[in-house]
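#struct-queue
[09:14] JT: dropping the first one here, sequence first, then the structure tokens:
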Amino acid sequence: MNPATHRHPASYRDPAGFVFEEDGILYRQIHPRYQPSYEQLKQSGLYDRLVSEKLLIPHEEISQPNTADAFRIIRPQRIRPVIPPFCWTYNMLLDAAIATLRIQTIALQHGMILKDAHPSNIQFIGASPILIDTLSFETWIKTKPWIAYRQYCESFLLPLVIGHHGVPDSPKLLRAWPGGIPLETGRTMLPLRSKLSLHWLLHLHLHARQSRQGDTPKSSSTGFSSGQMKNLIHSLKLGTTRCHAGNKHSGWTNYEQQVSARGQYTSHKLAVIQKESAALSGIDTILDLGSNTGNYSNALRNISEKIIQLESDPQTANALYEKNKTAGDQNSLSLCLNVEDLLPAGCDHGLIPSLKSDLVLCLGLLHHLTYRNYIPLPDVLNLLAQLTNKYLWIEYIDPTDPLIREHFNPERVEQRLIDLETFEKQLETLFTTRYHTQLADSSRRLYLCSKK
């Protein structure tokens, strides 16, 4: 085992250790400087408490290396997929923020604090947030303020409050500012009425003014008491839990009901997908692109419980996340992401390997990618081939379809016109068609394909 040569490219900032992968297994090397904190984490009972409450991933101690630069190597439970926070829905960011404060509260009870409070340290198992950075803890020195306070405000509280005031896809701001939205910049995005909340006024507006002087919560010569720390966390919790997603509906929220009005189209489509998919074998994960309410991928739970649902509309994606959370679903991951962002020009951030699945659904989406977003058909199909290990469901929508005439600019459709012959010819370059049919009460066609 040679950790240094297999270091994960995203693991380079933490002086306490780093993550590496060998033979498909993920490990974490802990440096000697972190030994006191690691031992306190384990001996204080904090590790056991957090793992039992499913707030921290468990790990196995693999070895105690005889090298000067390594104290211990651990093998943490692997979370798949690992998704950056800018792909989350609003309520995912909110739940991750609440979980972070919960972890901090428990850590204080065991004489430790979180030294990091960034969303990237949290991932989701279904609809449950969990901390994946075992080395995020250090001894709580009760005369010092919370070192991660500003980070929490900039990467959690600020985008949540911005979203509360009418920006349903506010987690996307973390794509522009991966380390958190600078307080002075972010406060200009907030309306004056945001100052009416004492907690938002304190942690965002006044904090931004104070940050111009290079300070965090007051840490003058009088010190910072344990009582102040607990009050700080309590105030952050009140400010965070006051945040709400706002308008829960958009033009796409009731799209399935609109389409279902078209005779037997929806029921036929669902029945075909269920019947033909039942014969597929070796399906571990299903990826639903443009999932909307998730009806089609949810109908395939008989072949796989692991489902990743991508929806670009923030309100619809957020509603789907809440639906899965209410159902206690620990297998479905609902994300807010444009499929076009996975293309090279969209700066995919290495998401394709994380999203790659055995069965991909591309239903009612192709015309949006080609006619609305001007993505050439070969590029769309190439992306789908990268995303699937085995199978693809894809829906062809004829240019004469009523919804295309209603929602798309005729000139755009004419410029990107894809007739059936062209579609099938392009599809066969990367896939082998196993089954296809025309859907009832529609000119639309459905194809089940195997990747070549």
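[09:21] JT: and here's the second one, same format:
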Amino acid sequence: MSAFLIVFLIIFLGYIVGMIRIGGFRVGDAGVLLVALVFGHYGFTVPESIRDFGLIVFTTSVGLYSGPTFVRNIRGKALSFAAVGAVITLSCLLFCFLIIRGSGITAPLCAGILSGAMTSTPALASAIEATGEAIVSVGYGIAYPFGVLCVVLFVQLVPKLYRVDLTKIPLPAQPDAAAGASRDFRMADPLGLCSFALAALLGILLGSITIPLPGGASCSLGLAGGPLFAGLIVGHFGHVGPYSLRPQRITLDLLREGGMLLFLLSAGVEAGSGFVEVLQQYGFGLFLWGVVLTAVPMLLGFIVAHYLLKLDLRASLGAICGGMTSTPSLGTLLTLTREDQASSEAVSVAYAGAYPVALIILVIFVRFLVI
């Protein structure tokens, strides 16, 4: 069967599975991964170049998307938001290290569980590239559904426990961190694909640089970290002379989604051949470790945000969504605050302040974890 036929069939069926709702929960993009696991189990394959292409497109678009906010938000409470993202991700990495040491689970498998618990496709990509082992995707597929569901339920449950109506304690409007400069810049093409290609090119070059480590080991940012950093840098500076370097938002949305789908289906097909065998070897205790790596860092991050840093509930929950790199939970939180624009802005700013920090820490340190 043609590889292209398999790719589009998996994407089609994956979206169908992703639309299925169970108790208000929707699998979403993870449906592509689940379908790909089944195809891989039955012996179907896709070229590795499809995975690498999807990875470059996805991480570059994430960097360009977050670049303006990442730097411009380093003021006011942005440092607090960044701290929440750092606390969540570093504690998750610490727990993952302890699980590897004490449970007998291999580092690549646990790194996959960590990536799924944090719903972080870039972390998954970084772990796969560092290890070259398909078992990473198995761990991701096991932990991802709970990682999504847990955070979505958390942001809905906490306001009820605190008896706070997120639509009736209006907050002052936050400045738009992503607002453009006062002057307009020309674009080389209407959608900004030229700028995207430049960021991807710089990212590939940056990712190829080898970094020496103690003990004679070495690592590189690779195709996961290199394009991410290049996207952040290009997105931050925004222009060269009169020409804009920031693609249209709709372009980034499309490329981010498309790149993620290509990467997920390739990783899923590769992992599918060993999925059942891994469960038979390690048992369903793997799901328990996924719960631990999702729930414990999230609760710790909330304590730090709400009680130590004294952030209000909206900002705390927005930072939790960003620290967990959970886009579905952000959507849920914005739905809860849709009647109050200022509250929605407060949630978005907190998310934007925590998300890039958490993403970068995961992408970099998951490599050191498996090494």
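[09:30] RK: nice, looked through the second one.
[09:31] RK: Confidence is low (pLDDT under 50) at residues 171-183.
[09:31] JT: good to know. The longest strand covers residues 210-212.
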